[in-house]
């Protein structure tokens, strides 16, 4: 069996976010990069668990990005996986990315493709679905549990107020979230092995991006909180009326 | 002095009389991608496995520390530098230093793991026979066995060789019977293997491998300590304790070689661990200062707080610079010795011995930086800093021990000059020439001009002058006090303080120069502030220590001339350190952490 896990890099959650070039580009300088947590903790770790149970599984990682992706890819390889592929392009458009991954996936004959449910930076949650469509295979989103046996997968997913259990035949694309696996810390041997695992860089397929970012904007800074004593209802009403002007 | 690829590698102690270039030294910013990953992994381990249960650790919950050490073993953190044939990862010395720093902010856990991997394992690894290593090292590497080290006794701490524990060969020659008592044994309450020192036939100081469970071995209850409460510390008792003769470690009568050599590495590693602790105590303090409001503003806007934050950062950056500079020197020396046919273990021991002076310098400075950082950290936290609810109070209590063990800071300060002079006497270090040159310079017309216009020429000159100050004071002290110098500890300590400041000043200047070359002047502006402030403050400290030393033995004209010389050698341009320190603090406040 062959598994492909999509890995993207995102700013560390403590990074300061700012924009440049007239708010059309994210200011990357000084940013610490991490593996997108949904890709790492859930998709990748689950794939590693499956491989631990069945050593014959081939586990590949794939990213679309420039050379600055390599440290993040090697961090992922330190957790596990046999090799990684980086498609050398820096476009953020979901369709562009999905097409690039699809091109590789078609050649690779993967049985299971795992993604995170979204990236924690752009949050578009679209690559998985598009990828499945481009490959003409089923797509299951927001998985909380993934079991695989031979030619089929059993997938649990969260639905409003409950849980759904799906059965699907392989190949399939699944987007993963909390529950699929537990965060792991790479160990020393994994880190040492990461350096010698193949990281193939290939050039992107020719395809137009479908979207183009016109501008970014930061949310308005949060206003200070005013505490009103629990027994001072009058003051609360006055503030809501005079200052917040909501009543 | 040798040249490798245009790099000049100074011998131990040679920094005092020779200059290095930026290219010669290794800095944290030179970490390989793998080393950075290892550092990140260590912090992740502390964050996810240790800090969430730190209160349970501090209550000495039975079995908890052992289970954490086993987890660390699974991560590969117990055997970073062990050879592969004993289940180790055979990483270089810089990488194992990184592991010590990365695990340094785990409070009592940091102490337990440092003791296990250092004094608990290394005596057997470095001095054990093949059989002893095969028997113990793989289990110590995995955490199946926990290691400890029994040197100190109630009557012999700093005077370690004054131990009273005895060892006597049994009549059948199969056992040594140990009698005596050890105290303050870290991990002692639950360790499986102990390196214990005892005197054979009353005078031959010897190390033994003692296993828990040997007949005649018992332990006392846990000590109630001021800090590192979660680290097990007990007394050990030996009553005709039967230790198999094959468990003698090293040679009979050569225990001191084990005891002292293990300490060199231990001192550098202690500095690595305290720097890890300082880093997180400083991060906590920055975050707290930003969030705490008084007088309707964040207290981080107050100059008083900014100055504290800056002082914490300046001293930590200096310690960090000297630590990795020294770790790399040891690594290079190790590689050289290994290439010349020594085993990995012999090579590392030899390399650490070569830089024993630097290791003592690091230990003193690193432990005092942690004290400064945690002390000011508590202050920044105000009343909350005095509360158990805040980690900074634990950091403060846990810091204090570092000035006491691995050789008290007094003993280490005394050793700095003692070792330097011994090397000079043995011809390993040419102190005479440079000291004479300084003495002659005192009598000549001072060179006021500085026509060197190259970058950092002024700062480089300061460092050269600080070294001259040390050579002048130390040279005069040796000449005047001669064989009595040992009895004038105050003088020795003042000179050691000058050396500690100078080694750190030089290390942070060289790091800044290297970073300037790498990243450009514009990107190191705040680092330049750090170095400027360190040198500026150090100049005054060096001057004061020099004066106090000189006044202890100098007289008349000679003393007057030396005072003039000292003034000249410690003269630096005025610096608006208030403004520089504000810039340093502002950078941390913007980053919300110590990000240097
Ligand atoms: C929590 C803890 C854990 C420890 N873990 C271990 C362990 O695992 N294994 C182990 O073997 N030991 C351990 N020790 C012991 C530790 O190494 C000693 O406490 C230390 O070496 C100091 O010895 P001492 O306590 O006897 O103090 P002393 O030697 O009595 O020192 C008292 C004071 O006198 C000063 N002094 C002593 N001699 C001189 C001198 N010649 N010149 C100038 N000043 C001097 C000292 O600097 C100090 O300020 C531990 C200690 C503690 C507190």
Task: Describe what this molecule looks like in 3D.
The complex is a heterodimer of chains A (247) and B (596). Chain A is an alpha/beta fold and 247 residues long. Helices cover 28% and strands 28% of the residues of chain A. Chain A has one domain (2-219): 3-Layer(aba) Sandwich (Rossmann fold), CATH 3.40.50.620. In chain A, the strands form three sheets. Chain A has a nine-stranded mixed β-sheet, with helices on both faces. In chain A, strands 2-5 form a two-stranded antiparallel ribbon. In chain A, strands 3-4 form a two-stranded antiparallel ribbon. In chain A, strand 9 and strand 10 form a beta hairpin. In chain B, a hairpin with a 3-residue loop joins strand 6 (193-200) and strand 7. Among the domains of chain B are: 33-146, Butyryl-Coa Dehydrogenase, subunit A, domain 1, CATH 1.10.540.10; 148-255, Butyryl-CoA Dehydrogenase, subunit A, domain 2 (Beta Barrel), CATH 2.40.110; 421-591, Butyryl-CoA Dehydrogenase, subunit A, domain 3 (Up-down Bundle), CATH 1.20.140. Chain B has 596 residues and is α+β, with helices and mostly antiparallel strands. Classes of the chains: A alpha/beta (247), B alpha+beta (596). Chains A and B meet through helix 2 and helix 5 of A and helix 1 of B. The complex binds flavin-adenine dinucleotide. Residues 115, 149-152, 157-158, 184-186, 225, 233, 401, 404-405, 408, 410-411, 414, 489 of chain B line the site of flavin-adenine dinucleotide. Chain A: It comes from Parafilimonas terrae. Chain A: Belongs to the ETF beta-subunit/FixA family.
């Amino acid at each position: 069996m062959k598994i492909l896990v999509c890995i993207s890099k995102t700013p560390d959650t403590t990074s300061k976010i700012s924009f440049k070039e007239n708010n059309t580009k994210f200011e990357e300088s000084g940013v610490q990069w991490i593996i997108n947590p949904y890709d790492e903790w859930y998709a990748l770790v689950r794939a590693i668990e499956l491989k631990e149970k069945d050593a014959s599984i081939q586990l590949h990682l794939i990213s679309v990005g420039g050379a600055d992706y390599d440290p993040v890819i090697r961090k992922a390889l330190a957790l596990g996986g046999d090799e990684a592929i980086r498609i050398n392009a820096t476009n953020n458009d979901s369709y562009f990315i999905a097409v690039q991954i699809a091109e590789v996936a078609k050649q690779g004959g993967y049985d299971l493709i795992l993604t995170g449910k979204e990236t924690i930076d752009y949050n578009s949650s679209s690559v998985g679905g598009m990828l499945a469509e481009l490959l003409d295979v089923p797509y299951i989103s927001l998985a909380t549990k993934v079991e695989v046996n031979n030619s089929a997968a059993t997938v649990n997913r969260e639905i409003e107020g409950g849980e759904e259990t799906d059965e699907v035949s392989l190949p399939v694309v699944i987007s993963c979230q909390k529950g699929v696996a537990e965060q792991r810390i790479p160990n020393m041997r994994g880190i040492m092995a990461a350096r010698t695992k193949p990281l193939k860089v290939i050039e992107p397929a020719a395809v137009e991006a479908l979207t183009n970012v016109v501008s970014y904007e930061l949310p308005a800074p949060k206003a200070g909180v005013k505490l009103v004593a629990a027994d001072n209802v009058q003051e609360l009403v006055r503030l809501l009326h005079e200052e917040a002007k909501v009543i | 002095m040798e040249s490798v690829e245009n790099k000049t590698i100074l011998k131990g102690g040679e920094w005092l009389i020779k200059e290095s270039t930026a290219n010669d030294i290794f800095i944290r910013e030179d970490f390989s991608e793998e080393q950075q990953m290892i550092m990140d992994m260590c912090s992740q381990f502390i964050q996810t496995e240790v800090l969430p249960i730190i209160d349970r650790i501090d209550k000495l919950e039975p079995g908890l520390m052992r289970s954490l050490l086993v987890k660390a073993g699974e991560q590969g953190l117990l055997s970073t530098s062990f050879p592969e044939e004993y289940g180790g990862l055979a990483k270089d010395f810089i990488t194992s230093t990184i592991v010590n720093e990365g695990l340094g902010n785990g409070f009592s856990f940091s102490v337990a793991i440092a003791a296990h991997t250092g004094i608990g394992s290394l005596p057997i690894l470095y001095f054990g026979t093949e059989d002893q290593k095969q028997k113990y090292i793989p289990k110590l590497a995995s955490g199946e066995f926990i290691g400890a080290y029994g040197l100190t006794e109630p009557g012999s701490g700093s005077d370690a060789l004054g131990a009273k524990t005895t060892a006597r060969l049994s009549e059948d020659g199969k056992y040594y019977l140990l009698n005596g008592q050890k105290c303050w044994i870290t991990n002692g309450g639950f360790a499986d293997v102990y390196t214990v020192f005892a005197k054979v036939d009353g005078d031959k100081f010897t190390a033994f491998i003692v296993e828990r469970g040997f007949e005649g071995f018992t332990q006392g209850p846990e000590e109630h300590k001021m800090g590192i409460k979660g680290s097990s510390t007990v007394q050990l008792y030996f009553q005709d304790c039967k230790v198999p003769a094959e468990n003698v470690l090293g040679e009979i009568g050569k225990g001191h070689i084990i005891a002292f050599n293990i300490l060199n590495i231990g001192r550098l590693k202690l500095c690595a661990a305290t720097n890890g602790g300082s880093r997180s105590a400083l991060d906590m303090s920055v975050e707290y200062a930003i969030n705490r409001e008084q007088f309707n503003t964040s207290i981080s806007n107050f100059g008083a707080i900014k100055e504290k934050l800056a002082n914490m950062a300046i001293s930590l950056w200096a310690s960090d610079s000297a630590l990795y500079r020294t770790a790399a020197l040891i690594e290079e020396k190790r590689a050289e010795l290994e290439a010349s046919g020594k085993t990995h273990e012999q090579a590392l021991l030899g390399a650490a011995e070569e830089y024993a002076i630097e290791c003592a310098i690091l230990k003193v400075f690193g432990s005092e930086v942690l004290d400064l950082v945690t002390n000011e950290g508590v202050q920044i936290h105000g009343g909350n800093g005095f509360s158990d609810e805040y980690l900074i109070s634990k950091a403060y209590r846990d810091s204090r021990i570092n000035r006491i063990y691995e050789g008290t800071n007094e003993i280490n300060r005394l050793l700095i000059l003692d070792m330097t002079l011994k090397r000079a006497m043995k011809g390993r270090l040419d102190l005479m020439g440079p000291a004479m040159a300084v003495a002659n310079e005192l009598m000549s017309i001072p060179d006021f001009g500085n026509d060197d216009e190259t970058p950092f020429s002024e700062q480089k000159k300061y460092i050269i002058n600080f070294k001259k100050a040390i050579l002048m004071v130390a040279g005069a002290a040796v000449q005047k006090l001669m064989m009595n110098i040992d009895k004038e500890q105050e003088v020795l300590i003042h000179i050691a303080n000058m050396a500690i400041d100078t080694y750190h000043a030089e290390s942070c200047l060289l790091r800044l120069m290297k970073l300037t070359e790498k990243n450009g002047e514009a990107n190191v502006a705040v680092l330049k502030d750090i170095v400027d402030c360190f040198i500026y403050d150090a100049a005054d400290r060096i001057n004061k220590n020099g004066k106090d030393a000189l006044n202890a033995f100098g007289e008349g004209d000679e003393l007057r001339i030396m005072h003039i010389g000292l003034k000249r050698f410690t003269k630096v341009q005025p610096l608006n350190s208030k403004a520089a320190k504000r810039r340093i603090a502002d950078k941390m406040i913007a980053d919300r952490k110590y990000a240097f």
